[in-house]
């Protein structure tokens, strides 16, 4: 359903509930106590300057990292931090850097993404019995459907490494969709794309949402994010600074400051910055004072 009102979206039980997610690497806290919900039918954006912890947060959601603290639940069930179990539960993702099987065809890449949803085991595959053949045919049909959906059907038999960059990104999305996810995580899906490809990706994300898959997307392109998302969360230095509708986030002076690099009151790290500034002022004051004394 495309025309879901905000009220229905807000009332539905969330597909994703991240609670107090913290990720530390030695002394560095990359993600600090982040809460985030995604509801069915929603497209939620995650933005923030480089190094803010966005990818690390995705890695915590998908079981690639075991968060130092906090928990991640899919449709109310806490997820074990194991990537294949997270995919099986219903969360799929694409990566910031394209990860395709370069020497496989476009269709084969999607079939790889399909394997979590096929029940046929190893022996069945080796013996190529009737069960396997049926499952294989069904998988192929579903993979072709997804290639139609993403506009890649004509290139099903091409090697993925021969696709232009924009189509490789699309193929990554098709492969992620092959696991029939309830939630799709996209990490910078338009990175390196020209405006036309970005526009096409926007349409694709809307279409995915319309099929009933909620989307959480990291992106640097602000126009893309604010146009696409029902809600946007801003990460700065690992902390969620602001969350709200595109309009609210877009006009929040703290967000503008975070992107322009101006310190603002209450910013993570602002205390330290203020202390440094005060010390510098004091030193400068002493220097001026010393010069005045010299001059006398
Ligand atoms: N595996 C890791 N080990 C140590 N530090 C990491 C690791 N992954 C990310 N970081 C650090 O965590 C911080 C956040 O990085 P990242 O999540 O990639 O940011 P973003 O995606 O917002 O640009 C950075 O300081 C980065 O260097
Ligand atoms: Mg990143």
Automatic annotation (TrEMBL):
Region listing for Disordered, in residue ranges: 270-296
Keywords of this entry: ATP-binding, Nucleotide-binding, Transport
Domain of life: Bacteria
Gene Ontology biological-process annotations: D-alanine transmembrane transport; L-alanine transport; L-isoleucine import across plasma membrane; L-valine import across plasma membrane
Residue span, ABC transporter domain: 16-262
Gene Ontology molecular-function annotations: ATP binding; ATP hydrolysis activity; L-isoleucine transmembrane transporter activity; L-phenylalanine transmembrane transporter activity; L-valine transmembrane transporter activity
CDD domains, sorted: ABC_Mj1267_LivG_branched
One Gene Ontology CC term in the entry: plasma membrane
Gene3D superfamilies the UniProt entry points to: P-loop containing nucleotide triphosphate hydrolases (3.40.50.300)
Residue spans of biased composition, Low complexity class: 270-287
InterPro entries listed in its UniProt record: AAA+_ATPase, ABC_AA/LPS_Transport, ABC_transporter-like_ATP-bd, BCA_ABC_TP_C, P-loop_NTPase
PANTHER family (alphabetical): AMINO ACID ABC TRANSPORTER ATP-BINDING PROTEIN, CONSERVED COMPONENT OF ABC TRANSPORTER FOR NATURAL AMINO ACIDS-RELATED
Protein name: ABC transporter ATP-binding protein
Native species: Streptomyces botrytidirepellens
